[in-house]
Amino acid sequence: MKAGIVGLPNVGKSTLFNCLSNAKAQSANFPFCTIEPNLGVVNVPDRRLEILEELVNPQKVMPATVEIVDIAGLVRGASKGEGLGNQFLGNIRECHAIIHVLRCFDNDNITHVDNSIDPIRDKETIDIELQLKDLDTVEVRLEKVKRAARTGNKEAQKEEAVLTKFKEALEVGVSARAVEVNEDEAELMKGFQLLTAKPILYVCNVDEASAKDGNAYVDRVKEAVKEESAEVLVLAVATESDIAELEDYEEKQIFLEDLGLEEPGASRLIRAAYKLLNLQTYFTAGEKEVRAWTIHIGNTAPQAAGVIHTDFEKGFIRAEVISFEDYESFGSEAKVKEAGKMRVEGKDYIVKDGDVMHFRFNV
C-alpha cells in the first residue's frame, strides 16, 4: 500500500519526502527536480511498540512500515501529456492514497510556477488535471459499456448508470471521492481506477513561525476542503528537514519545544498516511522479537495471521488475544493470563488496532 506525494513544482514535495524517508530524493529550487518517482519505506511511529519493548525486553523490535512515493511535479495540461503529465498521472494511478502538498508560505527566494502564492489556485490546478484525466477514462469506458447495455446486458446497464453518475460529476468539477455511491456502486467503482477517487490528505507547507498555529493561507485551505472529509496537516517542511538531520534526541526535543510542538510533524504525517490507507496495527510479543504487523481495518484473525505466513492463514485454528491496554496495565503476558484477560478468538474475529496476538495453526 503506497501513498503518493503530489503537488505543483517547488512546493516542498521532495524536501518532505527526505524528512520521511532514509531514501534521499534530490531537492533543488527548480521544477521537475524529481524525474523518477522515489520510493521510501517509512517506519510508523507508535508509542505502544516502545512500551511493549520495555515490558518484554526482546532481542529485536520491528515497527510497522508504510510506503511513500515522491512523484514529479505537475503542470497545467498534464491530462493531455504536457510537462511530465503522462508519467505523473501513471505514478498516481499506482498509489492507493494521495498526500497533496500545498505551498502556504511567502519566500521570494523560492520561485513559484505561477509567480504568486495561492494554495487554493494550486489545489484547483491539480484537481482539474486529475478530473480531466478521470473524465477521459470514464468516457472511453462508457462508450464500450453502452454497446453491451443496448443488447440488454444487465451488468453493463448497471455499469453504464454508475459511469454516467461519475461523468456528470466530473464535468462540473466534482472529484469522484465526493460522489455518493451505494455498496454495489462502490464495488464497480474500484474497477474504474479513477485518480480522484483515491483518499486524500492535504499538507500545508508553512514557514517556521506558522508551524504550530498555521496562518491565513492554511485557514483558506481548510475552508476550501471542508466538504471533502479530508484531513489537513500543517507542517513547516524546511524546519522539519532541519530537525530530521539532528542526530541527538535531546537536541531534537529542544528544537521542537522552541516551536511549541510535542513531536515532529513528520511523525504525525506518517500516522495520518497509515490511517488514510485504511491500515491498522496488531502486535506479536516474545523474547526473540516484538513486532508491529500491518493489516487492513476490518481484517479477520486468519487474514491477520496470513500476513506473517500464508500457512498461518491456511491452517488457522484460533488466536490468543490480549488488548494492548491490558498488556500495559498488567505488565506481562503471564499476569494477563492470571487475571483471565487473555481471550481465545476464532475465524470470524475482527482484529482490533493494538491487539497483541498469538496464533495457533496446523499445516
Please explain how this structure is put together.
The protein is an alpha/beta fold and 363 residues long. Helix content is 42%, strand content 19%. It has 14 helices and twelve strands. The chain has helices spanning 13-20, 47-56, 85-93, 119-150, 154-171, 183-190, 216-224, 237-245, 249-259, 265-276, 301-308, 310-314, 324-330, 333-338, and strands at residues 2-6, 38-43, 60-62, 65-70, 97-103, 200-205, 231-235, 279-285, 289-296, 316-322, 343-345, 356-361. The strands form three sheets. The protein has a six-stranded mixed beta sheet with strand order 2-4-1-5-6-7, with helices on both faces. The protein has a three-stranded mixed beta sheet with strand order 3-9-8, sandwiched between helices. Helix 7 (216-224) links the parallel strand 6 and strand 7 (231-235). The radius of gyration is 23 Å and the shape is flat. It starts with a strand and ends with a strand. Mean pLDDT is 88; it is low at 30-35.
